[in-house]
C-alpha cells in the first residue's frame, strides 16, 4: 500500500491528464478528417484475405508467430492487432502494402495464435509495457532497426508505447482511436455512469466468474464484442472463424484477464517493467509522424480526437473514416488504413 501511495503522489499530474482522455463526450474538433464511404471498389471486403501460413521466431520470452509479406528489403511496416481480434485484422491491408513495396510483419501478440511462451515458468503478464517490449524484441530478432508501426485496440496502445519510449525504432505511426497509453492509477478513479457502462466487460473480468465465463464461452464472448464494437459491420461466419482460432492459444484467457485486471489495479505487473510504467504514467508525448484514425460508427469506448491531438508533437493528422466503420477499422476499411500507412511512411 505504501508503494502505491508513493507512486500516486509522484504521478498525480499525469493521472489527471489520463483521466481527461478517459472522459468520453469531449467535443473538440478533430485536427483533420477524411471521409471514405465504405472504400468503394478500392478493396472489397475479404477480396484478398490471405496472410499465408505463419512463420515462427524466438524473440525475448516468446516464440512469436507472424505473417510476413512483401520484399525482404522493403521499408518495414509492423501491424498490431487487438482484442478480441488477431492478425486477420490486416488480411486485406498487408497484401496492399506489400504490393507497394513494403516488408510487412503482422505478429500474433502474446496469448494469441501460434505465439507461445518459451518457458512455462514465465509470468503470463499482459501489462502494456510487457507487450510493447515484445515488439522491440521481435524487431531485434528480425533485424529491423526502424519501422512504421500501425495498430488497432491493444495494437494501437502498443504502437503508441513503442513510439513514445523508443522513437528511434519507430519511423512513423498509424493509431486507431488516437492516444491510448494507460495509467492504472487513473483506473481507480470512477467515471460518470454513462462512461462506465461501455467498460462492463472489464468489471466482469475482474471476478472469478468472469474469468471462468470467458474461458467457457470465449468464441461467444468475442463475437458479442465484435458486434457491440462494430454495430454496422456485417461480418459473416467464415470471417469470424478465421480469427476465432487464434483464441485457442493455451495462454489466451490468462493474458486477457491479466490485461484488464492490471488496468484496474487489481493485478500486479512485473518489477522489471516498473521503470517503463513510470515513464508511461507521465503520459509522454509522441514525437514521430502520426496519423490517427477513427471510424464513424465505433461502438467501443473511445475519446474524441480533440482530447488527444495535443499528445502528438510531430507531424500529425486525424482522419475520420465514414461509411459505418466500427472499432476494427483496418478490417472494415482496409484501403483507408493502408493509405494512412503509405502516407505517414512518406513523411
Mean pLDDT: 89
Q: Name the helix and strand elements from N-terminus to C-terminus, one letter apiece.
A: HEEEHEEHEHEHHHHHHHEEHH
Largest sheet: 9 strands, mixed
Strand-pairing-aware structural class: alpha/beta
Structural write-up:
β3, α2 (94-99) and β4 form a beta-alpha-beta unit. The chain has helices at 2-22, 94-99, 128-142, 154-165, 193-196, 200-205, 208-216, 218-229, 237-244, 252-263, 274-280, 329-332, 334-345; strands at 55-59, 62-69, 76-80, 103-107, 116-117, 147-151, 170-176, 290-295, 316-321. The longest helix has 21 residues, at 2-22. By secondary structure, the protein is an alpha/beta fold. α3 (128-142) crosses α4 (154-165).
SSE topology:
Layout: H1 2-22, E1 55-59, E2 62-69, E3 76-80, H2 94-99, E4 103-107, E5 116-117, H3 128-142, E6 147-151, H4 154-165, E7 170-176, H5 193-196, H6 200-205, H7 208-216, H8 218-229, H9 237-244, H10 252-263, H11 274-280, E8 290-295, E9 316-321, H12 329-332, H13 334-345
Parallel strand pairs: 3-4, 3-6, 6-7, 7-8, 8-9
Antiparallel strand pairs: 1-2, 2-4, 2-5
Helix pairs in contact: 3-4
Could you give a short description of this structure?
This protein is of the alpha/beta class.
Features:
13 helices, globular, 347 residues, nine-stranded mixed β-sheet, disordered N terminus, 37% helix, alpha/beta
